[in-house]
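## tool: complex_structure
## caller: assistant
## args:
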Amino acid sequence: MNPPAETANLAKRDESVDWTALRNEFPILRETVNGHPLVYLDNAASSQKPQQVIDTVRRYYEHDNANVHRGIHELSNRATEAYEGARQRVADYLNAGSPEEIIFTRGTTEGLNLVANTWALDNLRKGDTILLTEMEHHSNLVPWQILANRIGAKLDFIEVTDDDGQLDLQWLDEQLARARLLSLTHISNTMGTVNPVAEICTHARAAGVVTVVDAAQSAGHTTVDVQAIGCDFLAFSGHKTCGPTGIGVLYGRRELLEAMPPYQGGGEMILKVEYRDSTFNVAPQKFEAGTPNVAGAVGLHAALDYLDAIGREAIFEHDQRLAKRACERLAEIDGIRLFGPSEDRSGVVSFVLPDAHALDLATMADQKGVALRAGHHCNQPLLAKLGVAATARASFYFYNTEAEVDRFIEVLHDVRKLLV
Amino acid sequence: MANFLDTTVDDLIENFEFLGDWEERFAYLIELGKKLPPLDESEMVEDNRVHGCQAMVWLKMLPAGDSTFEIHADSDAFIVKGLIAVLLMIHNGKTAAQILEDDGTAIFARLGLDRHLSPTRRNGLHSMVSRIKALAAASVAQPA
Ligand SMILES: Cc1ncc(COP(=O)(O)O)c(C=O)c1O
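## result:
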């Protein structure tokens, strides 16, 4: 019997990807750090950029740059087309119903703050409950705290079971019954957990709860389909998806966007302005006051083209393969505490050694050219719950190699000798 | 106590120059950190916490006769303990007036640490120095 078409395709795609050739398209990966070849394992914080993206941004500034939607001249037309073309590209990338559902932001953080300050501020009342999870990044926690304090709303949390980083969903329906809004991360930036967002959003929809998905750690690594997930809002950052810094995306379901008040006031977001009153533009312009980050959007367009040319399933499999190799080698260390699920995890690997502080590890690894992250990863309450002050984190992307995983483990063992 | 490390600032600078690269210098800081006497658990309390460091840091200053002070400090990370050891070499066993006059920044610059510490670590170091100076200043304002 033939394998199902999809599986056959996957296998074929992965074999056909020339990972070394891709890696060579990232100029920064040829850097040496402290006299050693760079081993960049901080991809959950920010990804590197391929030549194609760098060239696209440069080309935009060399040939097309002007303000958008304003000028009656050739360059303004080109810039506007490039910017709106990027919006269409993002809509395709997320399988959104239309480009009008795509708002360009500064990043995930701004996207989440936008929802908190528009839809949520307009719709939530004193005593309403905002449901989050215990694994949220500070940028999907603090905006809700600020809002809750302002309007007298309450926060509730879906619990994280333990070091394995799974959500405890047994009370989900009860929690949803009390909530008006649910905001949760697709993939945890500390634990590497891949949350079943589609399933959770199905339950939320049944309970009439509006859903927000933080796709910062997933958008550049795996398929993110807003219709399949069935969320109302979804945010991600360009800089974690091979794109430029300072550009991000907020997807919002059209009916909600149309009914929402504007976010910031200024140019672009208005239709008609008088001294004492204005009428606002329609979505998405209503949410994009001022001159947008056109070059960022254009660079993001190139980045999404780049990722789709590789194939997001292939990228995720590659991430997972490297994470598995790292976890297996790490698990051999006596007394190590490894966080996150043992199966079906993303390429984010967090750990604590019994005898060496994560900050010392990361500092010494950096002396050997290995870039790790150490600290609370903007997840202070989660680490406090787990009883650790800091973890060390290696996070992989498609341009990382098995040899780099091995080098990371070798360096870890070397460094540990100094510290114990 | 002032000489618990048997290392003076001059020794330290000399050792740093002798060590070829930063990997070795950090390893040396770690060794210094390991020699730092630990704080008692009961002293690791919020009042003694120095915020602004990535690692946990606790610091207190005790009068040690002749108007001098002894600094007691600890951290959960060795490199930070090493930096504390350097701070102790600079400030320990001195009077408040001397501590306020000490130019730790110049010494850290001579060690090259100002350039080789990450910006976040530099901030942490700055927080520790500020705490020491603040404690010294408070003792001048309000003699015990
Ligand atoms: C899960 C998650 N959410 C949100 C963010 C915030 O992203 P940004 O800083 O790009 O706005 C991050 C980035 O670290 C993240 O990992």
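## assistant note: Residues 74-94 of chain A form the longest helix (21 residues). Confidence is low (pLDDT under 50) at residues 1-12 of chain A. Handing back to user.
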